[in-house]
Specification:
By secondary structure, the chain is an alpha+beta fold. The strands form three sheets. Strands 2-1-5-4-3 form a five-stranded antiparallel β-sheet, with helices on one face. The two termini are 56 Å apart. Among the domains are: 221-306, Helix Hairpins, CATH 1.10.287.130; 309-458, Histidine kinase-like ATPase, C-terminal domain (Heat Shock Protein 90, 2-Layer Sandwich). The longest helix is centred in the middle third of the chain and has 51 residues, at 155-205. The chain has helices at 18-64, 73-86, 155-205, 221-270, 274-306, 318-335, 354-370, 405-409, 417-420, 427-437, and strands at residues 91-96, 102-105, 115-120, 134-141, 147-153, 314-317, 339-344, 349-352, 377-384, 388-395, 441-446, 451-458. The chain is built from ten helices and twelve strands. Helix 6 runs parallel beside helix 7. It binds adenosine-5'-triphosphate and magnesium ion. Magnesium ion (MG) binds at residues 363, 366-367, 423, 427.
Length: 470
Amino acid sequence: MMPETALPAIRARLWRTTAFRLAVAGALVSSVGAGIVFIIIYLSTVGTMSRTLDREIAAEVAEIIDPGTHPNSAAVLSATREQLEDAVRGTFAALIGPSGQIIATNFANPPRAVGWGWYSAPSQGKPFAPGITVIRGLGIKLSDGGVLFIGESATALVRLKTRMTIAFAISFAILLALGLGAGVSLGRGAVRRIGRINASLGRIMAGDFTRRLPHAAGDHEIDTLAASVNVMLARTQALMEDVQHIGNEIAHDLRSPLTRLRAGLELAQEAEDAPRLREAITQAIAQVDEGLELFSALLRLAQIESGTRRAAFTLVDLSSLLRAAAELCEPAADAGGDHFTTAIAPGLTLWGDPLLLTQLFVNLISNALRHTPAGSDIALRAHAAPDRIFITISDNGPGIPATQRREALRRFGRLNEARTGTGVGLGLPIAQAIATLHDGSLTLTDAAPGLRVEIALPHPPRTQARQPHG
Ligand SMILES: Nc1ncnc2c1ncn2[C@@H]1O[C@H](COP(=O)(O)OP(=O)(O)OP(=O)(O)O)[C@@H](O)[C@H]1O
Ligand SMILES: [Mg+2]
């Protein structure tokens, strides 16, 4: 199966971008809002005006025909004539006889229809009256088959309707165009940015791990994301370098014991008597142990870093634990003619793993013994400050120059292999991992002359048990 390393080809289509979709959705929502506003305005102007018009027409009809009666054409003729005489501009009336003949009217082509209606002047014909092209009117059937028509000019109303509809159509179009325009420009920007980021990712996947994603300073979500990815890339790069470094170091460190093992086994092959053979086997076992020790130290470090040991934390009597660690190292100090002194405040307690804490201090004291000339002064001090517990291990040996401290804390970081001989270079990383596991810190500083290792550890939480374990 092909490994999935290929970058999905980015066909970033403009209309698929979030920026574009958001802008268009915004434009649509504002258009719907504009539509609702239009309907409300329309109903409250045009609607009210046409209702008023209808009421006026009904009132004029009532002046000619008494409500509830059904007169014939002859009966309404005189009232219609009066109405026509009083008619103001824009008011129309017509009386149509039973056979369709016009009996009385004040305008051309009066409609013969019955009921409410809107009537427009024929497009090529002349208007109902100068300037009046639309009439709202009511036709009433008379008892002899004639029709009484009363109408009012609706030209202004229709003009208002048209203007409002056009205004709305224009604003709707502008809103949509603005939304689309904003979407296109924002979407294009997003497509460009993603394209650049994708190009960088392609380079990184092709093996250029030093490359980072382009991003501008600011709070734009793509920029923040790119910045986070860059932090992740830097971390990954560092881890990869570490792994590479560790791999090289393991190979390097196993080579010497394996070479010696091989030489020893060759000798054993030629050994003529049993004591020589046994001697060769003993040496071979020692070489294998050296290699095994390297692996168990690496595994221990991995276990400490995984944090699983936290489950076994108890309240530790740190003062006793430090004294015991010092006692453990005293024979070695005596053998090297070193002056090892301790100043441990009583009653220090700590929430942690006693075995790991012992290993932490033994590693540091052993370093002070091993990496200093015979007869050096080595001191272990511990005291409690209000916020933390401080433990320092200092010596007056060669120390570690500030520029090499980082290297000393790296796995397999040995600074002076030729002089110091055997160590694998895991003592300090393990010590630092143990301090970190306990929410503490380990720092290398200058004891001028010599090295001072400072460990700061938190006080135990108040809620924990009072009974410490040593
Ligand atoms: N007290 C010290 N004075 C001077 N150099 C030191 C001191 N402690 C550590 N170093 C330097 O830092 C390096 C790393 O120390 P670290 O304890 O990690 O490894 P190591 O002592 O070489 O091997 P080991 O894994 O057996 O402890 C040492 O090789 C040594 O060069
Ligand atoms: Mg060491």
